[in-house]
Each structure stands twice: as C-alpha cells, then as structure tokens.
Amino acid sequence: MSSQYPSAVGAPRPRADGRLKVTGQARYAADHGPDDGVHDLTHAVLVDATVGRGRITAIDTRAALAVPDVLTVIHHRNAPRLTYRDNPFPDSINPPGERLRAFQDDRVRFFGQPVAVVVATTLEAAQHAARLVEVTYDAEPPALDLATAPVDEPVEYSRGDVRDALAAAPVRLDATYRMARNHHNAMEPHAIVARWDGDRLTVWEKTQWVTDPRNELAAAFGIPQGAVRCYSRFVGGAFGNGGRTWVHSVAAALAAREVGRPVKLVLTRRQLFFGVGFRPAYDYRVGMGSDRDGRVTALVHDIVGETSTYERHEDDLALARMLYDVPAVRQEVRLARLNVNTPTWMRGPGWSTAANALEMSLDELAHELGLDPLELRMRNEPADDPSTGQPFSTRRLRECYAAGAREIGWHRRRPDGTRDGDWLVGLGMAAGAYPTERAPAQAHVRLDAGGTAVVRSATSDIGPGTTTSMAQVAADALGLAPWAVEFRLGDSAMPPAPVQALAWTMASVGSAVQSACGDLRRTAVELATGDERSPLYGEDPAAVVVRRGWMHPRDDPRRGETYQQLLTRNGRTHLEVTGGYEPPEESAFSMYAYSAIFAEVGVDSRLGMVRVRRLVGVFDAGRIVNPMLAESQAFGGMTGGIGQALLERTVTDTRDGRIVNAGLVDYLVPVSADVPEIRAIYLDGSDAEANPIRVKGLGEVVQVGVAPAIANAVFNATGRRVRELPIAPEHLL
Amino acid sequence: MRDRQSFEFALTSAAVALHVRGGVVTDARIAAGGVGTVPWRLTAVEERLRGRRAAEPLWAHAAEAAAEGARPLARNGFKVDLLRRTVERQLRVVGGTP
Amino acid sequence: METRPPRSRLTRRTFIAAASTTGTVVVAGAPGPTASGEEPARPPGPAAARGDGTTGRVTFTLNGRRTSLVVDNRTSLLDLLRERLDLTGTKKGCDAGACGACTVHVDGRRVNACLTLAVRLEGAEVTTIEGLARHGGLHPLQRAFVEQDALQCGFCTPGQIMSGVACIHEGHARSPDEIREWMSGNICRCGCYVNIVRAIGQAARGR
Ligand code: FES
Ligand code: FES
C-alpha cells in the first residue's frame, strides 16, 4: 500500500447510496416483492403470550380461521417438529443456552413470546385474525426483579489485594448505580420475507450479518447451510439486535413452507420490545479506595445484570479493569435469570455500562477530594494496560482531554455550577474506551476491461456507510477513482465477513478489501510488465504504481498505460481476485479506541427538567477513512447517549412481565429538540499495530462515556447525585 | 413540563388565565393536565388568587393548593410536588414578576 | 438514476385506473403476467371484492396520477402504498403516529400515512417520496440531505424529507431551534438530527 497514493481514504465523501436513500428507492427487508421475484406474497402476524410464565393449556383458532382470506394458524399443537441442529458460535452468535424454538412446546418463558402465527393473503385479515386466536394459559409467577431473581455463579476477576488496599485507603467511596433496561428501537422493525423453492429457502431479512440467518434457518429446518440464501442490502438501523436470528424468522420461514407461498412477517413496534433483545438493566456497585492526592488504589465492582431463563447473554464489562492505573481490582458479575427474552448487544455493549458506573463514581471521588475531575483522571492514567501488562498500541486520552476541555471551555466550570435565570448550569466530563477487535474476512474484486471495479463481501451496512468507505479503501488499493469502484454487500453467497458489530467491520472487512484489491493491482501490473506490447514491459513491478487507473513507473508518471488498455489488448474481459484478512492469533499490544466526552447541561431549578446545552466528544479511533461518515456516527452515538442519560428506560409490570411502555409514545428516545449542536472531534492519526487499515473502530466508542458525562454535569449544576440512569425530573425536584 | 423537549405528552401541565385589574386578580381560571384522566380544574388555586394582589408572594401561595386532595399512585408521587411547581411557574409567567 | 417508478409500475397504475372507470371490480383476474407481458396490480385479496360493506372505492391523485381502487375499509394509506401499490419508499416505523417514518403529503400538508384511512382519501392529492421530485431529478431538500449527510441507515429519511419540505413551506424553518421543534415528530434513531437541521436550513435558505 505504501507504494500507492492514498487519496480516497481520508476524504469526506458523501454516501454512495445516498441518492437511493433520499428517493425512497433503497429497499429494506419488508420492501421486497414482485420486483425481486416474490409473487403471491402472503402476510404473517404473530400471536404473543399474555402471561409472563407458564404453560399453554388450550388454543382455539376457530374464529381466526373463519376470517376470510386467512390461510392457516400455526402453533405448537399443529406445527411440524423442527430439526433445530445445534448452531453455536462461531457459526452463529447465539449465546450459550437452549434457544427459543418456534412453536415446539407449550412453555411460556416470557410475556410476549410468540405462541402462534396467523397467515393470510392480506395484512388486514392476518392482523384481525391474530386478535381472534384464543390462548388459555396455566400461568405461574414470573421472575422479574434483579434484586430477588435467582442468579448464576459469579464470573470473577481479580488483581492485587483489594481488601488490604481498601483498608489502607484514606478515602473510600461506596455507591450503587442502577441502569435501566434499554431497547434498541431502530427505526426499521425486524422484518423478513421468506420464499421456498423446493428445499431451498431464500430470505430477505433485516440483519447485521447475512451469514447468521442462513446458518440459523438451515439449522432449524435441518437443511444444508448452502440451501439458504439471505439478502440484506439495506438495514434500517439495528444497534446490536440485528446480530442474531430471532425466533420470528424461523416462524416466518415455517409459515411459508406450510402455506406453500412466500410470507412476509414484520414485527410491530410493540413486539420489538418483547422479542428482539435489549440492553440489560444493571445494579452496579462500585467500591473505591484512594489516597488524598486522588491516586485510586482499590476498585471493587459488584455487578448484577439481567439475562433470560433459557440463555446466558453476557456483556463484556472489562472497561473497569483497564481504564485506570489501579493496582487492586476485584470484579464480580452475576446474571439474574429472569422471565424475559434474552438480552443482546446494544451500542457500546458492556463498555458503556461499565463506563456509566466507573465514570460517575470517579466524579464522586473528585468531588470528595475537591479535585478537578479532569485532573483526577490524568493522575490515574496508566503507562501500560493494567489488565494485561501489555503496552498500548496507541492511547491518546490525554490529548482527547485537552482538545475536549478547550472546545467546551472547561475552565468555566465552577465546583458548584453556575446559574442562568431559572436554569442551573453545569459542566461534566467522562472518559470511555472500546476494544479494537478484528475477525477473519474475505472479499472478491473484479476489475472490468472498462476500467471500473466491483468489490463484494458478505458484510452489512446498518448505517455507518460501509458501502462508501469500503469503496474508498478499494479505490486506493486498486489505484482507481472512488467513483469507479462499487462495493456490494448483504448477500450470504458473497465471500464471508463477520457480523457488523463490535466496530470491527473496517478493521476486518476493510483489511480484506485492501488485500484483495492490492493483489489484483499487482496482478495487473505484472501482466503489463511481462507484456512486450506494454510501455511498462520489463519494469520492476514493485516500482510501478497506479493512479486513476493509469499504471506507471513511480518516477515517470507520463510513461504507462491504463488498466483498460492492458485488458483490451490482452483480450481479457476482466481480472478477478478473492482475498482475505486473517488477524494474528496474538498481539504484543493492547488495543482500544478512546473517548473523552464533555457536556454542558441546564437543569430547571424548580421543575427538574434537564436540557443538554452542549456536547463535545473527542475520539482517539486511529485512522479515519471518511471524516463525513465518521462525524455522523459520532453524532449518532452521542445522541444515543443523551437517551441513555435522560430518557430511555423500559418499565415492566411486576405482576406479569408486561412491558408497560412498549411503544415509541412511552419509551422515549431523543427527538430533534433534545439534541443541541454536537461537536465531534477525531484525533488525527493512525494505529499501525491495529490492522492493515490502521483503524481502531468507532461505531461503539462514540456512545461510551456520553451518559456519565451528562450525569456528572447534572451533579455539577445541582449538587444532586442521582445514581440512576436515566435521570428524570422526579430525581431532581 | 415533560421529560423530552418535544413530541411528548406532558408529565404535568398548567393552563392559566388571569383577570387583573389595578394590580388585583379579579378572576382566575386554572386547569392542570397530566394529573388525571381528563384536564383538571384547580378551583382551590383560583380561590386563593381572587381578590389578591397580583404580585410575588401570591403565586407560590396559590399554587400550594394545586394538589389539594390528590391521591398519587405508587410510582407517581413526585407529580404532587411537580404539579404545584408547574402551576406556580405558569402563574408567574402569566401574572409576571414585579 | 431514475427517480420515477420503473415503467412496469406506471403500467400497473394505468391498469388500475382503466379497470375502475369501467366499473369492474378491481383486479378480478388471477395474478401473473397478462397477455401483453405486463404484470397486473397486486390483488387486494377477495375481501376487497366482497361488496358486504367492508370495502370502499376511493379515487384520488397519487404523485400526480389519478388512482381509483377498491380498498378494505381497514387499510391505512401506509399499507395501501406499501402492500398494494408497491410504493415502498414510505416506511412503517411504529404504525401509531409516533415516529414520522410514514410522513406523506395529503393536499400539501404533512400527515402520518399510518393514521390515515385509505377510504378517506376521496378526491385528495397525495404525494409520497417517490413523487417529490419530477423528471429524475432531486428536490433541493433531497440534495441537501445527501450533501449534509443527514442520514445513516436511511430508514427515517423519506419521512424526514417529506416532513422537512412541509416544515419549510409552513414557514417553520427560520432558525435551527424552530426546525428542531417542528421536526420533533420525526424520529431518527441513528441520531442524524444535527445534520437534518443543517440540511433543512440549507434548503430553506434556497442554497
Ligand atoms: S409509522 Fe406512522 S408515525 Fe410511525
Ligand atoms: S437514518 Fe437511521 S433512523 Fe434516521
């Protein structure tokens, strides 16, 4: 790559698919129909359990079947037995446990569990009939409360002697932070169109990973993985819960097989609250010991989080072990077995949860010591990763702090906040990190004689602009203009890629794209240098570079030829290469992306309303492939953080497990009026250790630390420490 | 008064109409939202306003009566206080500060 | 790129209009290619033809084209567009008036298509994202959305744009704060608000 001109990467290019999206032509899962070869489409609607736990004792489908246009009602009494082969990680991202199966038994594990599916030729008939299915239950009291539910054996981590360190610490702090359950609520509901052709199944599915529905549906129906094809070109947001394949997808495919016609199933907004995971609620206790200068000497984390009775979803809460240079750390994570559907990843999974607790408690310590919170963090900045002993590949949090402090005007912060009319005004900050992950990936590139290229990989684009940024990477590696490269994704038959999550798509797929395109460029160059008719004949291939499709010796830009000339002369319609990226087994470095978030809030002194007035995020995320897209991602993550801090909580009726605010009217996500001007700054730079693209990942870290920065600003404004997220007016009256 | 800045039903809301003549409240109509299944007329507050001088100590005093007789549920006890404060704020907005 | 619907779809709508003017029950025939090789409109299902008072005929203008058809009385404008007319640019985010993804223009005003019963559209003029710009171009607000990167996943985008166009026409786009308030009925979970406000500001200023 060093021999190439990096020109596309680093440029703020607008989205390649922007035009399709602004004209309504981008087709999401539920938009597929006749134009995609889906004819005779029928509609499926799920019937959901109305008890939180128990058994189904009777199902009466007579009224539903009497509705004109209804084709069938499928439930556990009449559903065929499905194979359900085991399908563990890494073939899927199913967590450990017994996954929920489509209509295979009479047990109700949580309120809202699908217990039947109605299929009709019109959506109206299916919706109406679903309401007429009468299900009788033998209900049992569900387990719903974190504090009282049975918990698994704790997962423990420990270094140093926490007990001694705490006993010796002159300053101690002990606080429990409660974080509400959050629901992803991507704007696109989960949806699937399923069509069988004999024993082969094609699905258009909302997913962050086209490989997962392929494997899970193949496993459920006992057919080879190759017999399932999954398409997902456009995804209307997901934030984590489009990773695994949920039971409704199997239900839809089953329905299609039973009626012998294609089926479309779109979950209602309400059903999304019951069936496709969530960010678990946590009770997170922090014990901390420090010396009087603010050197933290001991950290204890006692954590209880939610999982379901049938699967064990575990968030990675390792942030608390690596963010600060603390010699003695003990962490115990317990998962409570609740009658809920299994939680799943949600933006900044685990790391944002841990940052909420750790960064709020650090703010408490700073207050206790009378220290500037920023200064406290500087005093605990480690030289090497305290959790592994390894050096950091890059860690530039200090620079993030400096840039953020400058941008927000941190010097204006007063220990007791300031006042602006009825508003109490405060400044707060917090830090965050997210690990730089990588996974094996492959990509195929085809360079056509016309001089344009198509690159394909089975990754997704749930919003970051993967189609655009991958084309930029490919363009540089091929030596083409970015407009001459098209990147395609979202088809399980393409070369495999990992799930689009964990902020590792650019690191993994990007590296594969770069490698494949680099190989293709070298193939072309060697073809030229070995071709007597080429002006490049006899040149050392290593000394030839390509720019805008023009191959030339590095020191003689005028002598050369285009890809087009080379291919045409050689009678080649195209050149193609499949290449891949295999991350090293081990690394000598600890790799993370970092965030420093600064918030200014106003709190109405009498009414307790909190308004974010300004929000600044500074990120150390390695190389930035497309600053325009990266800025949008940061805006998105930080907006999500506003929701986490001030709005988002799922409320359960403790009698039966019903979610009482299962809709966008009552589960509040930020609207435009909640979001002020946001400033997002990425430090210039790159991380040579991280991966060939030198990126550290940004999709997750942009939300880590946002909520605690806002919470800390609320404390600065009001002097009230609310140890609960979201912070609501009722906490501040 | 709401959690979200827009596009949400109010936690509590107050509508205030005051007739003020010669610095004295001659009549008042006060209604509250978000505290019952229908908008709620706050006659007790109106009574405390009538015939009094439209000036600072009055607003807080009158708003005190906003939640008279209110019986909150387990999770919305904060609304009693919030309603008083919301009414007080709105009285001040309409009646003005000296 | 062509923003008008592909030719086969125009033909389908023509077919609907033609069928309706003769008073025939719409789409009585079986689905599948017709003799001319054109596809007929998606069948509304037998319920639409029952004539038992659960269906109604409605004639309105859709993206500049007269459209007449028999609909199930329960059908929302949103489901009519998406499930019968293959105009899938209008999105369903909540089906409850709480997200704005389904925003279209009815007689020049922005409405939630999920809350609008199709049978009530008699004589109305309906514009969807597919009909916003004519002749294959982009509406200035569509262009501004691309230039300002006012979208990520793009799912809320058609609704944001339809709402934004109306917001500008209403005169509610004179300042960022005003735009924020008057666009708060359109949720963007990807969190593009900062850029949406910029895009609407740009289009409102006519740049
Ligand atoms: S789908 Fe109509 S407002 Fe959400
Ligand atoms: S762009 Fe994804 S919801 Fe708005």
UniProtKB/TrEMBL annotation, chain A:
Domain Aldehyde oxidase/xanthine dehydrogenase a/b hammerhead positions: 23-141
Q: Which keywords does this Swiss-Prot/TrEMBL entry list?
A: Molybdenum, Oxidoreductase
Cited InterPro entries: Ald_Oxase/Xan_DH_a/b, Ald_Oxase/Xan_DH_a/b_sf, Ald_Oxase/xanthine_DH-like, AldOxase/xan_DH_MoCoBD1, AldOxase/xan_DH_MoCoBD2, AldOxase/xan_DH_Mopterin-bd_sf
Q: Which Pfam families match?
A: Ald_Xan_dh_C, MoCoBD_1, MoCoBD_2
UniProt-recorded name of the protein: Xanthine dehydrogenase family protein molybdopterin-binding subunit
This chain's source organism reads: Myceligenerans pegani
What lineage is on file? Bacteria, Bacillati, Actinomycetota, Actinomycetes, Micrococcales
UniProtKB/TrEMBL annotation, chain C:
Output the Pfam families linked to this UniProt entry: Fer2, Fer2_2
Query: Segment Disordered: which positions?
Result: 29-55
Report the superkingdom from the record. Answer: Bacteria
Return the Gene3D superfamilies for the record: 3.10.20.30, [2Fe-2S]-binding domain
- Domain (2Fe-2S ferredoxin-type) spans 56-132
Q: Which InterPro entries match?
A: 2Fe-2S-bd, 2Fe-2S-bd_dom_sf, 2Fe-2S_ferredoxin-like_sf, 2Fe-2S_ferredoxin-type, 2Fe2S_fd_BS, Aldehyde_Oxdr_Iron-Sulfur, Beta-grasp_dom_sf, TAT_signal
Task: List the PROSITE patterns hit by this protein, alphabetically.
Answer: 2FE2S_FER_1, 2FE2S_FER_2, TAT
Q: Which residues form a coiled coil?
A: none
- Which terms are listed as keywords in the entry? Iron, Metal-binding, Oxidoreductase
Q: Where is the signal peptide?
A: none
- By what name is this protein known? (2Fe-2S)-binding protein
Q: Which organism is it from?
A: Myceligenerans pegani
